[in-house]
Each structure stands twice: as structure tokens, then as C-alpha cells.
Amino acid sequence: MNDAANTTGYDLAATRSALPILDDWTYLNTGTVGIMAEPVLARHLAYIVDHERGGHATQARAVEGYERARRTLASFLSVEPSDVALNRNATDGINWIAARFPLVAGDEVITSTEEHPAMIYPWLAACERAEARLRFTQLSSDPDALLANIHAVLSNRTRVVAISHVSCETGTRVPVERIRDLVGPDVVILIDASQSVGQFPIDIPALHADFVIGNGHKWLAGPKGSGFAWFDPEKIDLVPPAYFGDGAVEPQWTRSYYQTDPPPTLRFAGDASRFEYGTRAWHTYEALADAIEYQATLGWDAIFSHVNTMSSRMKEALNETPGIDVITPVEWHDSSGIVTFTIAGMSGIDISQELWDRDRIAQRRVEEPSAVRVSCTYFTDDSDITRLVEAVGRIARGR
Predict the structure, then answer these.
(1) pLDDT above 60 (res 6)
(2) Do residues 163 and 176 lie in contact, with contact meaning Cβ atoms separated by under 8 Å?
(3) How far apart are CA 358 and CA 83, in angstroms?
(4) 8 Å CB contact between 245 and 107
(5) Cα dist. 117→9, 75, 210, 216 in Å?
(6) Residues β-bridged to residue 257
(7) pLDDT tens, 75-133?
(8) Which helix H or strand E contains 338, and what residues bound it?
(9) H helix and E strand count, the chain
(10) Is 389 helix (H, G, I), strand (E, B) or coil?
(11) Distance of CA 267 to CAs 53, 234, 270, 277, Å?
């Protein structure tokens, strides 16, 4: 652990002390749900208490906190706040886009074989409505291989390429910034950054995408029920909102304007706020800003370096364990903090369940290949790696 602490540039032991669950669990499941540090949680609870007790009297504070979250997140992603819509999770963002994307019969949407159901279901539904076709490609960390895979299913009817920046199954880092050169300016690119934001530097403009969605509750360790969608301002009109309420349209509501005969034509708000409307849990979101700022005090470069170090040590230790096969690419620039592995002759379901029940190691199973996925993050230390490797080794010996 001392070597890791020296590598981080921040006090790893003190950082872990702000996460009390680590006293009882080996927490290697940030890729599913992050855990909130105690200083962030204290402020989060204070925001909830303030607004739930104060109601309308405290709404101005809650709304300002909501907008602070938008500004903080936008700065972190190198984009304008006006192009970011806050939502509950990445699933919201994908649905916003897929539900109203102007597909017609015969159009095609390309996605990958390693996507979360939250990517597949909305596009299946969109294609079903429009009599369009959903096509699948293989992900790769190799740019030439990725482009060759996409090219194999690309056609003159392709309207959308919707894939992940980091595979939620294998942790493979995908060179999504190269896709634009292949598909040209007229094919829309949607990137799911749920497993990349907070793991390594993300500059959204450099991805050359039209839409980017993500979560606040994973690697950013923000509130559950917080997420975002970024819209290229030149492409936002492709996907009008599917739902409407106060705040989604302009001008603001007056009876004299909207209760007329004939009625006015609805005009959406000019920026990404068109997807946000009505009363919502404003007080939930300010803690997302706090979560980002909390990790910033540790140093984002130090965090990214630590994730690299821990995931590399994890892969090395697992690879040295008899019967274990690591699926995640070895090199950091091809991978992420996610490490996926198999045990010969065992299902991922069985391995995962034993790690949960016997060893209190939080992780999750992967369906194909049948494997287990762990997440190395800013608080992971060598003792976590040791506990996992010892448990997996025991399971492998007893299979």
C-alpha cells in the first residue's frame, strides 16, 4: 500500500478513511455504482434537508446549486454549460436521442456487441417504430481494427453510430475519435461516456461526436440519479424533446400568449435546457459538483495515474494466478480501470456470487464471455488487489 500511496500524489489512507464501507467490503464495483465520500455526503444531505424542509422558500438556493452542477460538469468536460442537459442517468440521455431521432424505413443504426442494455433497448424501439435496422459491430482498442469493423456494416443508409467510449464488459478503451473520419459529417455519432468520465481525461470536442451521454454516480462518485447529456449545438435540433413542461419552451408561459385561437407554434428553448422541465430534485445535483471538486482536491492527474497503476497491478497479479485469463487489454492507453477476467471451466455468475457471499468483494459478472468485472478507482489500494487475487485463486483451485 505504501508504494501505491507514494504513486498517487495524495494520501491514500486518508482518502480511504472517508469511505467507511471499505472497513467491511472490498469495493471493486465503481463501474456499476460509485460510493460517495463522507465530506460530499455531508453536504449532499444538507442540501436535501434544506430544500425538503424549506420548500419554495429555499428553492432559489436549490436551483442555483443545480446550475452550479451544470457549470462544474461542463468545465470538467471542456464544453459550454448551455450545451449540457442534466438528467437522472445515461439511460435518460440515450432515450432522449433515440426516441425522437428522425429515422425512416430502411435507415440503419450501428451499435456494438458490448453495449449496456440502456443503449440497445432505446435503439431497438426506435428502429421498430421507423422500420429501420439495428446493426452490430465489434469494439476494438486498435483504431484500424475498429474502423474496419464499422466499415463492414456501414452503408449508405447508416444514420447513426452509437457506441461506448469504454466497454462496460471488458474495459477496452475505444478510439471513438477516429469514427468521424470514416463515416463523414452526415452520420450522427452518439458516444456513451459512462465508463470513461472520471477515469482518464475527457475532452468532449476531441471526440468528434454529436451527442455524448454519461452518469454522475459511477466514476465521479456523485449522487445516484444524476447524469448528463451533451448536445452539439449544430445538431440539437435533430432530436426535439419528447416531453414538454415549463422551462422546455420559449417564450416563458403566459396565458395571453399560449391560450389563444389559433394557438402559437411551440418553440423549444434555444439550448440543452429544452430537455429539462418542471419541478425536479434540484437539490440532488449540487452534490455532483461537490463530488467533482472533491476529487479535484486530490488532483485529477494523480487520480488518473493511480487508476492506471492499480488496474495494471490487478491485471499483472491475475495473469500470474493459475487458471485465470484476463480479457482486458494490458496497455493503459487501450484499457481503463475496468479489469475483466475468467476462470477456466466456471461461469461468471458462479464466480461473482461466491466473491459476493463468501468474500464480501463487490464486483459484477459479465455475460459474454462469462466472466467477472472489477473496477480500480481513486481509492483502490494494494490490499484490495491482494484480497481479490487470493479469493479468485482459491476459487480457481477448487473448481
Answers:
(1) no
(2) yes
(3) 46
(4) no
(5) 37, 29, 21, 18
(6) none
(7) 999 999 999 999 999 999 999 999 999 999 999 999 999 999 999 999 999 999 999 99
(8) strand 338-343
(9) 13, 13
(10) helix
(11) 35, 16, 8, 14
Predicted structure pTM score: 0.95
User: Would you call the peptide bond into 263 cis, given omega within 30 degrees of 0 as the criterion?
Assistant: no
Find the angle CA(334)-CA(26)-CA(328) to the nearest 5 degrees. Answer: 20
Match 440532488 to its residue by C-alpha cell. 284
Which of 74-78, 241-245, 359-363 is the least confident region?
Answer: 241-245
Bridge partner residues of 214 (DSSP): 228
> In the numeric block, which cell numbers belong to residue 124?
431497438
CA distances from 167 to 96, 136, 171 (A): 22, 14, 5
Burial letters 328-355, b for 16+ CB under 10 A, else e: bbeebebbbbbbbbbbeebbbeebbebb
Residues of the chain with pLDDT > 70, as a percent, come to 98
CB-based contacts of 24: which residues, under 8 Å, 6+ apart? 360
- Cα angle, residue 155 at apex, residues 149 and 159 outer, rounded to 5°: 100
Position 7 confidence tier, pLDDT thresholds 50, 70, 90 = low
Element holding 282 (H helix, E strand): helix 282-298
**Which residue carries 480511504 as its cell?**
16
State the CB neighbour count (10 A cutoff) for residue 261: 4
The answer to whether 154 and 179 are in contact (CB under 8 A) is no
Set of cell numbers at residue 136: 452490430
Measured N-to-C along each axis, helices 59-77 and 38-54 cross at an angle, to the nearest 10 degrees, of 140
Give the chain's end-to-end CA distance (angstroms, integer): 30
- Reference 203, options 169, 176, 171; nearest CA is 176
Nearby residues of 112 by Cβ (< 8 Å), 6 or more positions away: 136, 137, 138, 139, 163, 164, 167
Greatest pairwise CA separation for the chain in angstroms: 77
- Residue 251: asked if its preceding bond is cis (omega within 30°), the reply is yes
The confidence score (pLDDT) of residue 247 equals 85
- Residue 167's pLDDT is what? 97
Pairing of strands 84-87, 227-231: antiparallel
Task: Please give the grid coordinates belonging to residue 251.
Answer: 417564450
Burial class, 82, CB count within 10 angstroms (exposed 0-12 / middle 13-18 / buried 19+):
middle
The C-alpha cell that represents 73 in the structure block = 460538469
